[in-house]
Amino acid sequence: MDDAAGTLTRGTAEGGLTTGAVARLLGVAPTTLRSWDRRYGIGPASREGGRHRRWTSADIGLLECMCGLTNAGMPPAEAARAALAAASRDAPGRPDESASRSRTPSSRTPAASSLTSEASSHAPGALPVGRARRECRGLAGAAVRLDAQAMDELLDAAIDKYGLLAAWESVIMPTLHAVGRKWEGGGERYIEVEHLLSWHVSSALRRAAARRAPTAGSGVSLLACTPGESHTLALEALAAGLAGQGLPVRMFGAALPVEAMEEAVRRTGPAAVVLWAQSRSTASRALVARVESIEWGVRGARRRPVVLVAGPGWAGQLPSRALHPSGLAEALDVLAAISRR
Q1: What's the confidence (pLDDT) of residue 217?
Q2: What are the phi and psi torsion angles at 276 (to 5°)?
Q3: Spatial distance between the Cα atoms of 267 and 297, rounded to a whole number of angstroms
Q4: H-type helices in 73-147, by residue range?
Q5: Which residues pair with 28 in a beta bridge?
Q6: I want to staple 205 with a disulfide (CB 3.0 to 4.6 A). Which of 139, 224, 240, 264 is the partner?
Q7: What are phi and psi of 123, to 5 degrees?
């Protein structure tokens, strides 16, 4: 029996594994597991003494499904719904696990974090599935009609009503994926729909980012795509989310050359640098090491940035020291903590 299987067997016999043990078993940061538990209900079914997490083999199976879906590029909120639905289907005769987890005590999912009264039994950061589907259908329909005004109104309404994080994960990303799949299945037929929708999503994110001035005293986050990378929407959502918390951000967009990135780091002295790569061909471990080594400040008190790598391009080739948030929610949490140190 290998070490992982042995750890799981011993942990199950002892009443479940701790969060740290599960994190080591799956190669996931403990903060990621806590975030999935808090936001999406992907957590242990029971707790030791009502507080301490103890993960059973069934809980870990659910986590493995969640990890597989997010590693394939699915947004965490969507992956959580799919994993919980799969767990329910695979256990006939048992209560619907997604429903039972949504009814956990308020200490796990504070009512103050709920999006609406209708969503009070759902994890923060995710809309009720039925409502999200209606929002997505409306936005997708406006995109197919090339109705610019309707797209702007629907995007602004979703962000205003649910907050940027929930709107991004439950409305914007699923609609972008649906339009992308339609384009792939229809040749070049729907490429204009995808381009127009992407433009209006970008515009809506910038409008959201402009609503709040940055708070003085917080460290700046520098966001950039790696050289050769042109996909920016996820980074734009991150920039808008940081701005919404009053955190200063510098968004450099697509395909920033290495020399320009180094100059930007030295000139801004950021607390953190986020490098986005959509594909494996644009993810560079050498670039991460180069950015991590940049120093600034007076002699004897020099500083370096914390580097985060984001995007599906880093899967399977994560740099040893760089942080790798699982999605927008965790990236916002990590960057907020770094900026406010």
Answers
A1: 81
A2: -100, 135
A3: 10
A4: 76-89, 97-102, 129-144
A5: none
A6: 240
A7: -65, 145
Quick check: 107 and 49 in contact, CB under 8 A?
no
Contact 208, 240 (CB under 8 A): yes
Q: 129: which 2 tokens?
A: 């599935």
CA atoms of 179 and 186, how far apart (whole Å): 10
The b-or-e profile of 92-111 (16+ CB within 10 A means b, else e) is: eeeeebbeebbebeeeebee
Rounded to a whole number, what is the largest CA-CA distance in the chain?
67
CA-CA distance, 231 to 254, in Å (whole number)? 7
Place of tokens 């209900």: 41
pLDDT at 277: 93
* Number of residues in the chain: 341
CA angle 72, 75, 182 (to 5 degrees): 80
- 172: its two tokens: 């914007």
Low-confidence ranges of the chain (pLDDT < 50): 1-14, 50, 92-129
Query: Do 264 and 277 touch, CB atoms closer than 8 A?
Result: no
pLDDT the model gives residue 48: 54
Residues 314 and 284: their CA atoms lie apart, in Å, by 8
The owner of tokens 């109705």 is: 147
Report pLDDT for 7: 44
Angle at which helices 285-292 and 258-268 pack, to 10 degrees? Answer: 30
Q: HSE, CB side, 13 Å, CA atoms: give it for residue 331.
A: 31
pTM for the model stands at: 0.64
3-state secondary structure of 309: strand
The helix/strand/coil state of 155 is helix
